[in-house]
Amino acid sequence: MKSVNLKELALQLNLSISTVSKALNDSYEITPETKRRVQELADALHYQPNPYARSLRKQKSKTIAVIIPEIANNFFTLAINGIESIARQHGYHVLIYLTHEDYQKEVEITQLLQNGRVDGVLMSLSSNNNENEHLYDLHKKMLPLVFFDRVFEDLEAAKVTTDDYESGYKATAHLIEQGCRRIAHLAIPKDLSIGKKRMQGYMQALNDHQIPVQEDLIIACTDNQQMNYAFIRELMERKDRPDGIFASVEKLAINTYQACAELHIPIPEEVKVISFANLETAAFLNPSLTTITQPAFEIGKQAASILFEAIKMKNIKNHYSILKSVLIKRKSTGC
Length: 335
What we know:
By secondary structure, the chain is α/β, with parallel strands linked by helices. It folds into three domains: 6-49, no CATH class; 63-162 and 296-324, Rossmann fold (3-Layer(aba) Sandwich), CATH 3.40.50; 164-293 and 327-333, Rossmann fold, CATH 3.40.50. It is built from twelve helices and twelve strands. Helix 9 (193-208) links the parallel strand 6 and strand 7. Helix 8 runs parallel beside helix 9 (193-208) and helix 10 (225-236) packs across helix 11.
C-alpha cells in the first residue's frame, strides 16, 4: 500500500500542510472540528508520520555521521563497532560515509551534512586532503565534530587518536634490537597527522641509535595498491635491500609479504617486518606478523562518547585524547 504524506492529506482536506501537521499534533491553534476531520482522514488512509521529519522539527535527527577513508582497513571496522556500541546506548542511528581517499568526495559529504541531516559528525580524514576549507565550514555550522585517528590538528575540535609518534619509535627500535641496520619505512602521506608522527618516531629512533636516516629507504606510498606493490618489489630487488621494514599501515605489510614470497626472500631470516595493524589474522600469517596494534574499538567508543556529550551540552570542546597502542612481538621480527 502506498504511504500517504502530509501534502496529500492537505490536498484532500483543502487545508495547508502546516494546519494538517498542527492538527495531528493536537495544537491549541487548531479547532476541534478541524482536528476531527484531519484525524478521520489520516486514519482512513492509514497515514503514518515520518519519524525522520518529526525529529528534524524537534531539531534532532537521532542520527550521527561517521566519515572514514576506507572500510577494508581492520582499524576502521573495529572503530565503527565501538562507535555503534555508544550510539545504541543513546538511541541513535549511525550513517557511514566512505571517501575512498578522495578529497573531493570528502568535501561533498561535509557539504551534504550541513543541512541538519545529522546531529553530529565523527571523522577520519582522507589521505588526499589538500585543502581544509570544507572542515572550517563544517565547524562554523556549530555541528558537533570529533576527529579520530586521522585528525586535523589546526582546527579547534575534539580529537581522539593513538600514540603514533611513540609507536613509530617503538616499532623502529624493536627492529634495531633484532639486529636490523637498514630499515625501510613504508610511509603514508606526511600531510596526514598519523603519517607525519609515525615518520617522526621512525627517524628519531634511528638517530638515537646512531643509524643515519637514508631518504632512499623512505618509500612514499599511495592509496593505489598496485603502485605500492611495485614500489616495495623494486625496494626488495636492490642489491643493498633493507634488512628491516616498518609498514605504517597493514595493507603495506601484506604487499611486503607478497613481494618477498615472489622474490624468494625469507621473513625473518633476511628481512624482518613490523606493521601498524589490527588484523585478527596477524598471528596466523606465515610467518606471524609483529604488529603495533591500536585500541581501535576503544578509540571509536571514546570518540562517540565525546560527540554525544557535545550533542547533549550543545558545546564543542577542544578535547584531545591519546590512547596507547601495543607492540605484539611475533615471528616476522624473529621473536
